[in-house]
Design goal:
The chain has 95 residues and is α+β, with helices and mostly antiparallel strands. Helix content is 18%, strand content 6%. The radius of gyration is 19 Å and the shape is extended.
Amino acid sequence: MPPSFDAEAWGVEPGYVDVDGFWREAPPASVDAVLRAMGATADGPPPAPAPAPGRRPARCPPPPATRAWGWATQLYAVRSRASWGIGDLGDLARL
């Protein structure tokens, strides 16, 4: 990708904060590959579609500026007799 592409305008972060809190730059080749896969152009990303009346915007909100925790589970660990003990999306919905 040409250097004129604004990766952040396309929602591609140029790096990340590691587990120790240090900023790590992403390899430029990786950022370019992501932009190519997204079909990036010099014109910038297309505008987000307008939400339907009574609906939320189509794009996800950015993460909070502060650190936060959330819940995670492995689907196979969410078991019930209805799923033969291996977990399925019905079990996940009940969880």
